[in-house]
């Protein structure tokens, strides 16, 4: 029975999705972007071996798993970074096109001040 570390379980969904659903060029591009030498793995590489190698890649000098490493690599990888920028532009355009709401006036503002003056 295979057991997986917490780091491997964290990494598995993204990498298995990338390998199963993306082009070979994009997979190679991402591995190159993150500085991972995919070609050093044996040809008969198992999913367990791949996850262990990726986990090692995202382990710092102190032996701790770097949980922000993968999101950082994803965010700066051009296909994802371009999509993030596109979504931010759309959101900015959408917020500019909305009419600004007027601030609600305080109810009975004058009654409060008049009441305070009488007391």
| Straight-line distance between termini | 80 Å
* Morphology: elongated
Let me know the largest β-sheet. Answer: none
Q: Give me the strand/helix succession.
A: HHHHHH
DSSP, total strands: 0
Structural class: mainly alpha
- DSSP strand content: under 5%
Determine the number of helices (DSSP H or I, runs of at least 4 residues): 6
Poorly predicted runs: none
Rg on CA atoms, Å: 26 Å
Helical percentage: 55-70%
Mean pLDDT reading:
83
How is the secondary structure organized here?
Layout: H1 6-21, H2 24-34, H3 47-57, H4 69-76, H5 78-97, H6 109-118
Helix pairs in contact: 1-3
Summarize the structure.
By secondary structure, the protein is mostly helical.
Give an account of the 3D structure.
The chain has six helices and no strands. The chain is elongated. Helix 1 crosses helix 3 (47-57). With 119 residues, it is mainly α. The chain has helices at residues 6-21, 24-34, 47-57, 69-76, 78-97, 109-118.
